[in-house]
Design goal:
Elements: E1 11-18, H1 22-30, H2 33-38, E2 41-48, E3 53-60, H3 63-70, H4 73-81, E4 90-94
Antiparallel strand pairs: 1-3, 1-4, 2-3
């Protein structure tokens, strides 16, 4: 019998927020790559607008760990340092797709 490869499941999430200054936020956000490894992130893409809005697309290998890490004190501290308006943060777990 041949062994079947188990497909690696990657979850995706989008996080949006208002920040005090998008340029300062981006500088701070880019400095947190060590923290992102704790999120089980495998890829991160983002946009920061002139209106101080940010949207981040996360590809993550363990959704449960990712969600737990978002609530960790270390994450709250990083967000505060980066000027994130905590009350504006929205998390969307992508659970639907269209295969083309």
């Amino acid at each position: 019998m041949g062994m079947q490869k188990k497909e690696k499941t990657v979850s995706k999430a989008i996080i949006t927020a208002q920040v005090e200054d998008s340029t300062n936020w981006e500088t701070g956000f880019r400095s947190h790559t060590g923290l992102f490894s704790k999120y089980t992130a495998t890829a991160v893409q983002f946009v920061a607008t002139d209106d101080n809005e940010v949207a981040i697309l996360w590809e993550i290998s363990n959704l449960e760990t990712f969600l737990a890490q978002l609530d960790a004190p270390e994450t709250a501290e990083a967000m505060a340092q980066d000027g994130v308006n905590h009350d504006s943060v929205k998390v969307y777990i992508l659970d639907k797709e269209i295969n083309l």
